[in-house]
Amino acid sequence: MTNEPGDGIELEYGLDEKPPMAKSILLGLQHVAVMIVPATAVAYIVAGNVGLSSADTAYIVQMVLLFSGLATVIQAYTIGPVGAKLPIVMGSSFTFVGAATTIGIEFGMAAVFGAILVTGFVVEGVIGWQFKRIKPFFPPLVTGLVVVIIGLYLIPTGMDYAAGGSAAQEAGEFGAVHHIGLAALVLAIAVGLNMLTRGVTRLLSILAAIVVGYAAALALDFVYGFGLVDFSSVRGADPVAFPSPMHFGLEFEPIAILVFAFLFLVSAMETVGDMSGVTAAEGRNPDDREFRGALFNDGSLSSLGSIFGTFPVTSFSQNVGIISFTGVMSRHVVGISGVILAILGLSPVIGGFVTTIPSAVFGGAVLLMVGMVAASGFRLIVLHTELNRRNMVIVAVSLGLGLGIATTPEAISGLPNAAQTFFGEPVILTALSALILNTIVPGEQSPLFDAEDAAPVDDKPNPAPGPSDD
């Protein structure tokens, strides 16, 4: 499939096209390989901070994989109004790590999962239900800026992984040559295969780079004994394990519910931005049904998963970059990714083996992916937005605030804790800034003003109309 010039990127496989099964499985594995480490890292971090047992930690990891897979499959194929029929990979977000840790320590994990149960259905359900009414407030300028900030503020995370991650920090090896070398190797192979080859090698460039990086890490362990690949998560794991409802119980604390309600607003904005990043490959914004279905999927699967002991599932930004990077937009490929994730969630041995991928190997791929996410956001803005004075100011303010809080979170340390939680999120600060400015300042994309009202705000009339906002 090839788009019309200027509408989107050149796609190898369009939204409803099905690559051959063997190729689809490999492409699906590529999506899994890119997201599985950060998705399960959420469980490890929270469980470690709260002080859960190794058995409970392993169980949460298993549930994260299972419900990420189920949510991904539903996103690709839908069940009634739930799902968008878009190639969006779902997983646990770092957005919820701080709140889950704090509430878990203060009130217990039952309060964490009780808050998720309530706010997932209510917050994202209401947003999805009424999105047709609020859609005018989220034009390409706003959603594009959300995509941009998602990519930009994840870059430090990619660099952290490339330098060896938390394990390297604890061992005093953060930024060691062998970590940076592995990340550079993965990055170079992925870029080289994508830019200099054609066919299946280009489509599977990221997966090939991760495989080569993993092999190199094993070789370094064998020769120098670095201990880059840790198989402890595989030893003694059961081959098959099934979910048990109410594993941690459910409690409903008002403060916990309020905090997670704020964070689900962030999650909804991230999903809106990620959806826009995906459909930007076709040179368009998502339609009302797609927005509604994706948000319903976020909320309902997050709430359902909380009963079994998993953290909220939302769209995974790294995988948005894979679509732009490879030109494979097929939702059937992502559906296969979901099946693979669900299988991993039912088999702790397989899931444990996959999570042995060293942080540095993963970091090389993440740096590339989050950069592509940011680039797709810029592309969405440029395609559908005239960069006049008004819109340039909105871009400047929104990205300035978002990146400012991402790099200097202590700047708002004097605010109440609830305000720090809310305004300390780069995505929500960027989105709110863009939303408010775009709404109140006259302009073509403002929901309160028409094109004639917008004219006085521009530096000069646009000699040729830009792409439609529709």
UniProtKB/TrEMBL annotation:
GO CC, sorted alphabetically, is: plasma membrane
Q: Indicate the segments annotated as coiled coil, or none if absent.
A: none
Identify the keywords attached in UniProt to this record, alphabetized: Cell membrane, Membrane, Transmembrane, Transmembrane helix, Transport
Q: Which InterPro entries match?
A: NCS2, Xan_ur_permease
Localization per record: Cell membrane
> What Pfam family does this protein match (any one)?
Xan_ur_permease
Q: Where is this region: Disordered?
A: 450-470
**Residues passing through the membrane, by range:** 25-47, 59-79, 86-105, 138-156, 176-196, 203-226, 246-266, 333-354, 360-381
User: How does the record classify its membrane topology?
Assistant: Multi-pass membrane protein
List the Gene Ontology MF annotations in alphabetical order: xanthine transmembrane transporter activity
Q: Which family does it belong to?
A: Belongs to the nucleobase:cation symporter-2 (NCS2) (TC 2.A.40) family.
Q: What is this protein called?
A: Uracil-xanthine permease
Question: Which organism does this record belong to?
Answer: Natrialba magadii (strain ATCC 43099 / DSM 3394 / CCM 3739 / CIP 104546 / IAM 13178 / JCM 8861 / NBRC 102185 / NCIMB 2190 / MS3) (Natronobacterium magadii)
